[in-house]
Amino acid sequence: MKAAWIADAAGGDLSIRVGETDAPAHAEDRLLVNIDAVGLTFGEPAWVTNGTLALPDGSKRPLPVIIGHEFAGRVAHVGAATSGFAVGDRVVGLIDFWRNGAAAEQASVLSGEITGLPDAVSAVEAATLPIGALTAWQALFDFAALKAGETVLIHGGAGAVGTFAIQIAKGIGARVIATARGGEATGLCRELGADVVIDTTAERFEDVAGPVDVVFDTVGHDLLERSWQFVRPGARLVTISGEAEDAPSPERAKQLGIEAFWFIVKPDPAQLAEIVRWVADGRITVQVDRAYRLDEARQAFLEADSRAKRGKTVLTV
Ligand SMILES: NC(=O)c1ccc[n+]([C@@H]2O[C@H](COP(=O)([O-])OP(=O)(O)OC[C@H]3O[C@@H](n4cnc5c(N)ncnc54)[C@H](OP(=O)(O)O)[C@@H]3O)[C@@H](O)[C@H]2O)c1
Question: What are the structural domains of the chain?
Answer without folding.
Answer: 2-128+286-316 (3.90.180.10), 131-262 (3.40.50.720)
